[in-house]
From TrEMBL:
This is Ceramide kinase family protein. GO terms for molecular function: ceramide kinase activity. The lineage of its organism: Eukaryota, Metazoa, Chordata, Craniata, Vertebrata. One of its GO terms (biological process) is ceramide metabolic process. GO terms for cellular component: membrane. Residues 465-503 are annotated as: Disordered. The gene is zgc:158263. InterPro entries: ATP-NAD_kinase_N, CERK_C, CERK_PH, Diacylglycerol_kinase_cat_dom, Lipid_Phosphate_FormReg, NAD/diacylglycerol_kinase_sf. Keywords: Kinase, Transferase.
Length: 578
């Protein structure tokens, strides 16, 4: 129902404004002494954070001057930042003065009514988990100084739990009563987010009576939203979905009830679910870096730089068999030079594709998962050889050090992932690949790199390597027994296979010192969103839009202000706006 229009003269300081509330927007236009319009400020009602009687200040601390003729409007303001790929959100504040109290009360009443009408998805009650040990150990301070005042302003009640052990948040979500909560907020880094992700997904499947261990099951989408307040040593998920690592920006997204669907990859071994992943699943280089860093935790965050250098110098490659189920190339491509930004049309079309058959079937994703039946084995593509790294990501995985991420054109909610295969190459070639992640150069434009948009991935060791590394009696089982079907391969992949099958690791790093050229293991480990998986052979499947975050994707300054420049940079960040 359209809110009633309200218009009157208001004062901001000693300047007169004509204020108009139309339902969807709240505008105020400066009027000069000759009643001519000057500058206009327009705020969508959906981005009004709160309305308070009197002269009120919220941040850095709450100050209230109770007056009969004044009211204060808080709203979202945007600013760009050189260190972020998206826009920073700030709390705008304007104090209005009315001729009398009656008009003041009329404005506050209408503005609050408009908020209820045009922001129905705003949370009313949130469950908040704070990791007091993550990052610089400022989680509690960030919540109480930045987040809590905004929640109070917006009328959001919260139940706060400061975690004392690993997986406490996950266990709480799996076992405790969650009635009445609209969402879950984590104040921490990627590790805390992963805990909450597993708890929310697990609880949803429990209540739906679904078995997470069945790799063919169509998982039920989660109704509880997840909010991320970045306060960890790594905040990649927040950066890739908001475009900034900024607690105030993230808190404002939560307050106004933004909703960003997110794909999730389930990782299974032969018997059960191993883990869920949303950012990166990496074998080879990325797995080795994480395993090496665990030996040097005393170094703090510097251990990642040190471990990355040591693993690079070791120049290792690993034999493996990769099978993948390609996504429809007509819908999108990992090489199409688009970016998944706020209002992405690729993700919007995917929403229609993933959900259109919901009313006609008992399973939300039944049509999406039908292709994983045994009848579709012929659609799988298989490659074998030696790899420097094998990676699967459901998002760009961008971060401050890598503004475009592992796969710049990956999408948050299109039901696919990007599989990146880096074949065995010389150290300088691999260094060029790594360096391009920090620049605007295309890291896939190298002869030893492949990228594929996929819906599922299988990985196993060649039978001989499996027996060497695991010594399991069933290590060399026939592929048909595991459901591995015969499949073809691209010509390029076959050429890599022929080159890599000639023998053991090439002596490309013979010039390196003995310390760095230590004997390489037969197999690497999987790095799953910063955690080492206990298994090597895995099956991964992408579940489209399984969870929803309090976010809206990365907002780009060029999209808001318009860009008429015909340049390579503009082409690279092709923008889809709401």
């Amino acid at each position: 129902m359209e809110a009633e229009r309200l218009e009157s003269s208001l004062w901001v300081g000693n300047k007169r404004y004509r204020a108009v509330l139309t339902g969807w927007h709240f505008n105020w236009t400066e009027v000069d002494k000759k009643n001519r319009d000057k500058k206009t400020i327009s705020v969508p009602v959906a981005e009004v954070v709160g309305v308070e009687e009197g002269r009120v200040e919220i941040l850095p601390q709450k100050v209230v001057e109770d007056t009969d003729k004044d009211f204060t409007v808080f709203y979202v303001k945007r600013s760009s930042s050189g260190g972020s790929s998206g826009l920073l959100w700030r709390l705008g504040r304007t104090q209005f003065s009315c001729p009398g109290r009656v008009l003041r009360d009329q404005w506050t009443k209408h503005l609050r009514a408009a908020l209820k009408t045009h922001s129905p998805l705003r949370p009313h009650k949130l469950l908040v988990f704070i990791n007091p040990f993550g990052g610089k150990k400022k989680g509690r301070a960030i919540y109480h100084s930045v987040v809590a005042p905004l929640f109070e302003l917006a009328g959001i009640s919260s139940h706060v739990i400061v975690t004392e052990r690993a997986n406490q948040a996950r266990d709480h979500l799996l076992k405790k009563d969650l009635t009445g909560f609209d969402g879950v907020v984590c104040v921490g880094g990627d590790g805390m987010f992963s805990e909450i992700l597993h708890g929310v997904i697990g609880r949803t499947q429990q209540e739906a009576g679904l078995c997470e261990n069945d790799p063919a099951v169509a998982l039920q989408p989660c109704s509880l939203h997840i909010g991320i307040i970045p306060a960890g040593s790594t905040d990649c998920v927040c950066y890739a979905t908001v475009g900034a690592i900024d607690p105030l920006t993230s808190a404002l997204h939560i307050v106004i009830g933004d909703s960003q669907p997110l794909d999730v990859c389930s990782v299974h071994d032969a018997a059960a679910l191993v883990r869920y992943s949303v950012s990166m699943l990496g074998y080879g280089f990325y797995g080795d870096v994480l395993a090496e860093s665990e030996k040097h935790r005393w170094m703090g965050p510097l251990r990642y730089d040190y471990s990355g250098t040591m693993v690079y110098l070791s120049n290792r490659s690993y034999a493996g068999v990769v099978q993948y189920l390609p996504a429809d190339p007509l819908l999108s491509s990992p090489r199409d030079k688009t970016r998944c930004l706020s209002g992405c049309s690729v993700c919007s079309r995917s929403t229609e594709r993933l959900f259109h058959s919901f009313s006609d079937s008992g399973s939300l994703y039944s049509s999406h998962f039908s292709e994983f039946s045994s009848d579709s084995e012929g659609d799988w593509v298989s490659v074998e050889g030696r790899f420097r790294c094998v990676s699967l990501t459901c998002m760009s995985s961008s971060c401050p050090r890598s503004p475009y991420g592992l796969s710049p054109s990956a999408h948050l909610a299109d039901g696919t992932g990007d599989l990146i295969l880096v074949w065995e190459t010389n150290p300088l070639g691999f260094l060029k690949f790594l360096y391009r992640h920090t620049s605007t150069q295309d890291q896939f434009d190298l002869p030893f790199v492949e990228v594929h948009r996929v819906k599922a991935v299988r990985f196993c060791l060649p039978s001989s390597k499996e027996e060497e590394s695991h010594g399991e009696t069933g290590g060399g089982a026939d592929e048909e027994e595991r459901g591995y079907g015969a499949a073809g391969s691209r010509a390029g992949s076959q050429q890599h296979l022929a080159d890599g099958a000639a023998g053991p690791e090439k002596p490309g790093g013979a010039f390196l010192c003995g310390l760095c050229r230590s004997a390489a293991p037969a197999a690497s480990v999987w790095n799953c969103d910063g955690e080492i998986l206990p298994v090597t052979e895995i099956l991964c499947r992408v579940h489209g839009q399984l969870v929803r975050l309090y976010a809206r994707g990365i907002e780009d300054a060029a999209a808001l202000h318009g860009c008429s420049e015909d340049c390579d940079e503009c082409e690279r960040r092709c923008i889809f706006n709401k």
